[in-house]
Amino acid sequence: MCFAVLEGLVLAGDRTEIQEDPQVMVILGAQVKPWGPSVLLKDRLDTALDYWREHPELPLVVSGGQGSDEPMSEAQCMYDYLTEQGVPGEQIWMEENSRNTVQNFRETARLLEERGMEPEETHILVVSNGFHLTRARMLADRNGFAHVSTLAAPSSDLPARVNSYVREAPALLKSWLLDR
Question: What span, in angstroms and rounded, lies between the C-alpha atoms of 118 and 140?
């Protein structure tokens, strides 16, 4: 029953919800493969690119460090992909220190503060796969972001999608209890 409730929360959060005009787009990292972004990360990047092309003035934060099984940081991989697609490099701000979602938001808050932006006043647009957005909203709020919009990327790889929705329910519980 607990899993069903958690899964219901995950599914309820799987939506694009844009409030006001975002000032910064934050793209959350996902696994990097030897050949480039994983399918889930590419889905996030392509969704972000579609929105950015309609709002080319928007700076982008790419957030994600390098795991032991990754050839480069998630942020570097995202930077490379986005610049190959025409996003000017100076418009992409890299956050390469985080290892998980709560750290994504802590480090992104620090990066914005270094650029003179207050997290509690800055309107951010968080881009991730839909299954991840309930937890992302919660963790953004816990890290001082008061104005959070979300952009739900699809999960085009069926096995990855099923796995992600199943593992997100316990991840949501873990974050709710421990990621403070």
Answer: 13
